[in-house]
Design a protein that fits this description.
This protein is an all-alpha fold. It contains ten helices and no strands. The protein starts with 42 loop residues before the first helix and ends with a helix.
């Protein structure tokens, strides 16, 4: 009596495998879509209230974009773990003053510029600097306090330059600066330096 022969088995690499469709793993499970980076809490809501699009600040935005920061300055700031505009804007000014060889006035100027970029976004901050001589957040805060005294023509120029839907939305955006404590801190540090230098000079 003859034994039945089993069919020869194909090599492992030639065995039939089910096709893997797009977006699926080998065993048929669907891959989860990559998560989008989340914006800080409240950003989307604020943008909806203002009727504007959110301009996301890239965490890696180079601090070399800040006027006055050269290559050596950037390298020294990186040693203090400051590699982005956001980090520069919110680092304690006294810490940078004592840990670096920079003058406090210069540090405050860098941080003032960085805070303007963080508050308005890179594009709008550039428009404010180039067309309205707003160098930093401190200047923007003074403009916010004087917004009601601007002529209709200048106000409309601001609305167009900053791509705002209306003057009302513009006022709401600038109103946030009036209560910004970080700007008040920077102004206090600058005033203190001026008073010290005056006493020393006398």
């Amino acid at each position: 009596m003859c034994r039945q022969r089993r069919p020869a088995r194909l090599p492992h690499r030639l065995e039939h495998r089910p096709r893997v469709g797009p977006g699926q793993h080998r065993h048929g499970h669907r891959r989860r879509p990559a998560r989008r980076p989340r914006l800080p809490r409240g950003v989307n809501r604020a943008a909806a209230l203002l009727g504007t699009e959110v301009e996301t600040i890239d965490p890696g935005l180079g601090i070399r974009n800040i006027e006055g920061i050269g290559l050596e300055d950037a390298q020294r700031l990186q040693e203090e773990n400051i590699t982005s505009v956001h980090a520069l804007a919110f680092s304690p000014a006294p810490r940078l003053f004592f840990n670096t060889s920079q003058h406090l006035q210069r540090i405050c100027d860098w941080q003032d510029q960085a805070l303007l970029t963080v508050t308005f976004g890179e594009t709008r901050a550039k428009q404010l600097r180039e067309h309205f001589q707003i160098r930093g957040a401190s200047d923007a805060q003074r403009l916010a306090a004087d917004l009601d005294n601007l002529s209709a023509e200048v106000l409309q120029q601001l609305v167009v330059s900053l791509n705002m839907p209306s003057p009302t939305h513009l006022r709401q955006l600038f109103a946030r600066l009036l209560l910004d404590r970080r700007i008040d801190e920077l102004r206090a540090y600058r005033s203190a330096v001026l008073r010290i230098e005056t006493v020393v000079a006398n």
